[in-house]
Amino acid sequence: MSRSRTTVVDIAHAAGVSKSTVSLVLQGSPLVNEKTREKVNSVIADLGYIYNRGAANLRQARSKIVGIVVNDLTNSFFAELAVGMDMVVQSAGYVQFLAHSGESVDRQREVIASMRENGIAGLILSPARGTEAADLKPLIDSGIPVVVVVRNLPGAKVSTLLSDNYTGAKAAVRHLVSLGHRRIGFMGGFIDTAVFAERLRGYRDALQEAGIAADDALIIHSAPSRAGGVAAVERMMLHPDRATAALCLNDAVAFGVCDGLRSVGIDPGKGFGVIGFDDVIEAKTAVPALTTVSVDPQGMGQRAAQLLLKQINAGGNEQESLVTSVRLVVRQSCGAPVRNNYLEEMA
Amino acid sequence: MSRSRTTVVDIAHAAGVSKSTVSLVLQGSPLVNEKTREKVNSVIADLGYIYNRGAANLRQARSKIVGIVVNDLTNSFFAELAVGMDMVVQSAGYVQFLAHSGESVDRQREVIASMRENGIAGLILSPARGTEAADLKPLIDSGIPVVVVVRNLPGAKVSTLLSDNYTGAKAAVRHLVSLGHRRIGFMGGFIDTAVFAERLRGYRDALQEAGIAADDALIIHSAPSRAGGVAAVERMMLHPDRATAALCLNDAVAFGVCDGLRSVGIDPGKGFGVIGFDDVIEAKTAVPALTTVSVDPQGMGQRAAQLLLKQINAGGNEQESLVTSVRLVVRQSCGAPVRNNYLEEMA
DNA sequence: AGATATAATTGGAACGTTCCAAATATGTCA
DNA sequence: TGACATATTTGGAACGTTCCAATTATATCT
């Protein structure tokens, strides 16, 4: 219907200059005379010209596109992470392919391949469960910068951005201990993820440090979701000598645990202390407000994106591994009186 | 560092054929002899060739990329919507630029412009508040198919996929009436969105139908989020003759309302009937499980993507407007005994 | 005015693919 | 075997940009 796309040549013709000059204008080169720049720009506006970035990429062998693959976009933690990335990617003049792997390594492989064919300049990956370092080898060898976030991928030669899961979990459990709890559970998560392992280790070390004997019956696996949290509580209730408080794998599980407690008549925060991990936005407004280890997912997403962009611009491929620090935010769900040093700033 | 990209010419050379033949193989053309196809494919595998879709797009003047712009990715409704789209887009061999406008029309404009420069074949937009039909005019005029979802954009010549907000809201209020409620509120949402207007209209008509006088004091605006729901309850409590039940703009508000009720000592589902809208995944597992109007966000995303792909393949630009039907799913939050005809199937 | 420096502009080749028209190989029939 | 049909292969032009080296216009200096 509409006739063929207007191109630099059309602009050049209409403005009475060469296509090279138009190209210089498009790139904001200082070489071009102010007068002609204005002329060209006005013609561009008149003709409704749309820059063809694909053609430019072809010539320049680089693009302004990054790929982001996230294991579960329906989990608010990852959604916020993605939003953080979106912010910095976008304001750096890039666009992102953003895909959801749904924890499927096959899907993840496919989507990464597709992104590669489409010429991404770099990739941020929150790996699906079961991803191996070898899966990323070809991509990395081709010189495309990769940043792995949230879940560690030991052995992969990539930059990594993780949260300090160990320290965070330890702090949370210490807090529960300081409130007088002795039977403290760990709820949610599957054993095969690095995040689970690290948080569990923090939990264990804190218990040991407090001289509390470990009891594996208090560690209850479940899906790392709200539904998983509900299920975990059900399972917990079967145990005669159940926990009086728990650190949950993440906030989603913690919310589920609160739901589950309520449905068996226990008031979360009063009858049972609950601590989450992540600090998603709902944590603050939930009732009871969730005590949680704040990871600042959005900020983490921003940092990941910054790291990737830095890597892309540097060209070199030296990896960098960052661990972002976390802090315990004490709210109502653990039953604690809010202490000053933990006092949360108002939003 | 790594030497220049391997290209069809390299493959052709190594396989002893012409680049044209390699191209035919890549496109799965039936013209090429089985023997040579195998040869070429093996060389492709050996050399680790990566198809350059950008170059192909340039030549063909069409791409396998779609754009998706969503107003708020941190809202699970939209996250699920995006995941639904992701599914069908991906399995159709496309990739998506997926961006978050954060309800900013400026940001939305920028990101759509950027996607256009990058050669999207079509766009799915869940418009930011304040988007006008005119904003999409240039894009549409250029012949790129656009599908608008969730929020209507009157006057825009685009395909649209909406949920039946009016009927859903009406059904929800009817249900509350059938439970004996007379003072029924409408909570959450800003007045300037079409979704709000439609659901409110359903609410009003259902009340009228039941012979209940409208009382604007029962309509409480707030942000369409969990925090907004909490705030709405606070405001509601100031009213001497408060509601005994409410239809909420969406599930996020409904969850917030439940939180807010709890914090003033009211047990949601018992002391106050709450109905949401959307049926996000947490609705089922929340405690109390949320009675809500099910929109099936993921399914809606899938349908939107299918609609767009159909449009892209058809080439023509006749618009199509679909309204997806919704159904009331009665769970615990409205205090109703679960009735058979509404009984929810197990997942 | 002529030489020289500096500012601004420019034509063509190149990026990696697809498409077309044309060429070549292979098979079939009388 | 020659004519014809069919199957397979192939060079080059084209897509819309950027880059380079080279050219032309303008300013500056003696």
Overview of the structural elements:
2 copies of one chain form a homodimer. Chain A has a 6-stranded parallel beta sheet, sandwiched between helices. Chain A has helices spanning 8-15, 19-26, 34-47, 53-60, 76-91, 105-117, 133-141, 165-178, 194-209, 226-237, 251-263, 282-285, 297-314, and strands at residues 65-70, 95-100, 122-125, 146-149, 159-163, 184-187, 219-220, 245-248, 273-278, 291-294, 321-324, 327-329. The first copy, chain A, is of the alpha/beta class. Chain A starts with 7 loop residues before the first helix and ends in an 18-residue tail after the last strand. Chain A folds into 3 domains: 8-51, 434 Repressor (Amino-terminal Domain); 63-162 and 297-324, Rossmann fold (3-Layer(aba) Sandwich); 165-296 and 328-342, Rossmann fold (3-Layer(aba) Sandwich). In chain A, helix 11 links the parallel strand 8 and strand 9. The first copy, chain A, is built from 13 helices and 12 strands. Chains A and B meet through helix 4, helix 5, strand 2, helix 6 and helix 10 of A and helix 4, helix 5, strand 2, helix 6 and helix 10 of B. The first copy, chain A, binds a DNA duplex (30 and 30 nucleotides) through residues 5, 7-9, 17-21, 23-24, 26-27, 31-33, 36, 51-61.
